[in-house]
Amino acid sequence: MLLRHTPKEINPRKALTINPAKTCQPIGAMYAALGIHSCLPHSHGSQGCCAYHRSTLTRHYKEPVMAATSSFTEGASVFGGQANLVQAIDNIFTIYDPDVIAVHTTCLSETIGDDIPQIARKAEADGKIPSGKFVIHVNTPSYVGTHVTGFANMTKAMVDYFAKSTGTRANRINIIPGYVEPSDMEEIKRIAEMMGVPIVLFPDTSNVLNRPQTGKYEMFPKGGVTVEALMSTGDSMATIGLGRMASSPAARALDTKCKVPCEILDLPIGFKATDRFVDTLRKTAAINVPDALNEERGRLLDIVTDMHQYFYGRKVALAGDADQLIALTEFLVSIDMWPVHIVTGTAGKDFEARIREITRNVPHPVNVSAPADMFLLHQWIKNEPVDLLIGNTYLKYIARDEDIPLVRFGFPILDRVGHSYFPTVGYRGGMRLLEKILDALMDRQDRDAPEESFELVM
Amino acid sequence: MKVVSKETISPEVEPIDPAAVKQELLRKVPTKVARKRAKQIVINSLAENQDVPEIGANTRTIPGIITQRGCTYAGCKGVVLGPTRDIVNITHGPIGCGFYSWLTRRNQTRAQEPAGENFMTYCFSTDMQEEDIVFGGEKKLRAAIQEAYDLFKPKAISVFSTCPVGLIGDDVHSVTREMKEQLGINVFAFSCEGYKGVSQSAGHHIANNGLFTHIVGLDDTVQEGKYKINLLGEYNIGGDAFEIDRILKDCGITLVATFSGNSSYDQFANSHTADLNTIMCHRSINYVAEMMETKFGIPWIKINFIGAEASAKTLRKIANYFEDPELIERVEEVIAREMPEVIKVRDEIRARCQGKLAMLFVGGSRAHHYQELFAEIGMKTISAGYEFAHRDDYEGRHVLPNLKVDADSRNIEELEVHPDPERYRPRKSAEDLARMQENGFRFKDYDGMMREMAAGTLVIDDISQYETERLLEIYKPAIFCAGIKEKFAVQKSGIPMKQLHSYDSGGPYAGFKGAINFYREIDRMVNSQIWTYLKAPWQENPELAAKYACD
Ligand code: SF4
Ligand code: SF4
Known about the structure:
The structure holds 2 protein chains of 2 kinds. By secondary structure, chain A is α/β, with parallel strands linked by helices. Chain A folds into 3 domains: 25-147, Nitrogenase molybdenum iron protein domain (Rossmann fold), CATH 3.40.50; 170-290, 3-Layer(aba) Sandwich (Rossmann fold); 293-452, Rossmann fold. Helices cover 46% and strands 13% of the residues of chain A. Chain A contains 18 helices and 14 strands. In chain B, α15 (366-376) links the parallel β10 and β11 (380-385). Chain B is 43% helix and 12% strand. Chain B has a domain at 72-194: Rossmann fold (3-Layer(aba) Sandwich). In chain B, the strands form 3 sheets. Chain B has a 6-stranded mixed beta sheet with strand order 1-12-11-10-13-14, sandwiched between helices. In chain B, strands 3-2-4-5 form a 4-stranded parallel beta sheet, with helices on both faces. A 4-stranded parallel beta sheet of chain B has the order 7-6-8-9, with helices on both faces. Chain B has helices at 18-27, 31-40, 72-80, 95-100, 130-135, 138-152, 163-168, 172-183, 200-214, 240-251, 265-270, 282-296, 308-322, 325-353, 366-376, 391-395, 407-410, 430-438, 465-475, 484-492, 511-526, 537-540, and strands at residues 41-43, 87-92, 124-125, 156-161, 186-190, 227-234, 253-260, 276-279, 300-302, 357-361, 380-385, 458-460, 479-482, 497-499. By secondary structure, chain B is of the alpha/beta class. At the A-B interface, β1, α1, α2, β3 and α3 of A face α3, α4, β3, α5 and α6 of B. Bound molecules: iron/sulfur cluster (2 copies). One iron/sulfur cluster (SF4) sits between chains A (46, 48-49, 52, 106-108) and B (71, 73, 97, 162-163, 193-194).
């Protein structure tokens, strides 16, 4: 047994987190910053955080993840990191030449209280920022919020630093995709294109963290939202933010700063949430939904109706980020599965209320806790077993110990590929999710079926 | 470009002038940075007295350079204590540090089924929140230790401080002292805040000090066994320690403790009863060996189980230490039994790998050790360097007396150690030691990486991403070895990349079976057809034929 010390009996813990269902702000900020074209994320603190964040993102994407660090030593920790950051900015522009350096802080520089804009001004005064280049920043103390907060904050920084209104509205919609995979960002762009809606999507990690093998490494690949496009967001006619936690700070900032009205939707996972997304796009842009997209919706629904018997009443345990879990839970409930244990490390009261609302007709008690950890999830499962686990790679330890099939979904996925190439958002993403769920459940049925009832046709 | 004598590098490569390469690496960087890097980029040469040039190492990382290095916490909690299975290791800090060091290093461990303790699959953290940073985290830490104890009743609980903890001044040591008293189990802490020192290396030292102070020597039970040794600096990545274990067992050598692959708390507690300390990774663990020698009288020797020849040499060295003909004979039998299979595979693979170039930039010992394995299949190391080693790991321990202790190293406590009044027992008399040394047996010695590298090769400390890319362009090596952060940028340039921290998904590579695994792995990587598909047919031949197929 891999998690042999996890007892069935649940005693409340106040101080000790075991097997967290979240991680820290800067990694989300780093991920978001990689979604700006020609941007080098920079971690202002000691170098360990940066090494850890790069390693984790690299393991998740199997792609180069470049970022620099201020490499604090004890001296910098006492006297502040100004000299380190100014030198870093000089080195980065001289050696690596990005268009943008996106600085985020760490627990260390936050605790010291370094003033990044002041340091950036100093670097500028010293002539370390070439003209036409940018240094942007965001504060990401990890003792507040989670990796999703970091993503949300860096995305908001893109608005704070770049969005401009020229006074002329453009026929264009901003979409903030939330903390989703590059494949999902690509899919959202594809849907908008199908519908003929001009959009700016930011951040956009497609073609950055899922780029092709060409034999030629480029530190700054084709993908990413350009600074120019970010500037133009202030003139767009509306913003759609997907995922409340990850996207609403930036969407609201655009509203405040440039009077671009915003709508915050759930992540478009499953057909209901995708319907709302498509409908909002349709109404905002005043267009008709093309047949091709209706057909995609129909195909998703076709899988649901064809295979309903395999979904109905199956109990599922979920761990992950709040935005994902809300949409995913709704999707599962909508196809008559029963999400019965749900934990996230990322959120509080609103999340619980929302999940309660979504699951109110599930004919089974539902455990939901936020913030909570995977140790608790495991204990719940020991008390009330489930048919399926959905969540990140760390769930594989529970999956093996309890012999429950696992569908990998969320962050991080360290042991499988696919998530960076194939989306889980939109109707097609929904189809992929259902394929994975069915594969997992039906493989299990095949494995466990007595010989006489082993099925050829399923 | 000036021509380097072909023999020193490889008959198959265009002779490339290393001085010109060095210049190229420094060309674009700001002057001040170039000055510093110039000391860390060295063209290797070997003087007649075996001296190698001086290299800059264990100095501060240059901000913004894109370094491979991690932090002190990673060296302490991740590297040294990470592989211990029966200590509840609690990270005291915000959630990230603990999360990222959760199970990501591939240290294997074999706990007894079904009841043996194994906490390696768990991540324990105090997950500090803003109020803990503002008002201090000691209370939460105390409560976390209590909760861990209530849940698991472990033998020991240890605490690792992350950056903010040092700044807000939590006294982790007094908390652990108190809890030790209160719970009646061993509870101790490491002040391994990430900003201490210049790399993981400082964390190794802090971990060594902690192990030595809090665990080593707690259990005086003397185990059965004629030849009792400890294996230091072997972390059982990909199962290396299992293979070494197998070989030692076959030789009749008893492993008292491994620091710290597949280890248990009891092994550490008992390790001072061994009669010899053998060191694999000199960088991360020589401190414990030194301290055990002073306190308990256990000599240490440098060994290496990476490479089949090196493994054989190591076994002979251990046997010679015990000066027992029976052991010497047994060791020869084991070597004679293991080598034929190794040689068979090696020779077959050498025919396909001969003369190809390798580059190794990793860690504090592996960039050296793995050159052995590459050499065994005829591959040449054209450039290598460590991520966090010190000068002695490059140039050999004879430079130790001349090392400058800078401000960053001074931060790390040097324990004052004295012979134990009761338990100090020199394993060899002074005369024996002198006699053995006269006969060429070398105690506490390490020659470092550079003496074993060819003249004209480039030795680069703390290589940056920029330098990595230039080297790849200039030398186009057949394989590049480093860590996960470097992996995919290298592969995206069309060059296979082997991780030598985690071994990707491979291993073991230590010992005899490990050597065979490694030969096969490198053969797979450097001779695969998959790297030939980079261009589509129409990219290779873009001209249009003015004909339709149906014409
Ligand atoms: S906060 Fe400090 S201890 Fe934690 S990963 Fe960063 S550098 Fe290391
Ligand atoms: S110190 Fe803070 S920012 Fe760095 S890894 Fe730990 S939690 Fe994350």
